[in-house]
């Protein structure tokens, strides 16, 4: 997915928001704005939102001297999500279709995103999303595909959301390799975030080698990209991964909430829609389940 014009005001808003959170001085914030602005004329038309976001946050981290400024926020979100874990598990156990309910819970966790929202009320957000139907729902395809594979590769997104992903992993009934970022980027999950959520108890945690708010082929390690190409089934969580992988020809099911105008328009859905998109999504985005 290519960056849209609407992405650029969002980048500048993120600079100001994150600079304040990092307690950068006004001079440092101006420098961040100037350095980011200097990159824009050289961006290729093919640049993705996640790829541009990578450059933005690398500038901010360098100026702050803190490689993981969201560390405390990530831990807080994970603790709150862990408190909700027993209730989520009970909801799955009492469902007529536990796997479908686990998918709903996993996508509900996708509203935890400090790249697109300054404040997250986990409990209120979870209840709101769980009352919402998938706008595009390729569940039957996913279930059929799942029956035919030996293992699943799952691409994680944000810390805290990892707990919701754990609920899904526990219902897939297949060995899972869970993918995290190589190093901190906004509130995206790295290995320690996945371990705090208990992912390591139910899946093998691996790194994409990528330091970006998404999975972008040119920033991934060669070893990981080979893993992607060899995968029989990939479940990709969140907007950043969709932005980086939507044009790749891989067996990817995208599970996300469309949280911005650009992504919603790219897919052809209203903003705020919950989505479970099959690999054939380009020929059937008008479908709804």
What report would you give on this structure?
This protein has 289 residues and is α/β, with parallel strands linked by helices. The protein folds into two domains: 7-64; 71-283, Uncharacterised protein PF01937, DUF89, domain 3 (Rossmann fold, 3-Layer(aba) Sandwich). Helix content is 48%, strand content 11%. The model is unreliable at 114-119 and 283-289 (pLDDT under 50). The protein has helices at residues 7-21, 26-39, 49-64, 71-93, 98-108, 122-130, 139-147, 161-172, 191-196, 222-230, 239-245, 261-267, and strands spanning 134-137, 152-155, 176-180, 204-207, 234-237, 252-257, 274-277. A seven-stranded mixed beta sheet has the order 1-7-6-5-2-3-4, with helices on both faces. Helix 1 (7-21) packs parallel to helix 3.
Short description:
The protein has 289 residues and is an alpha/beta fold.
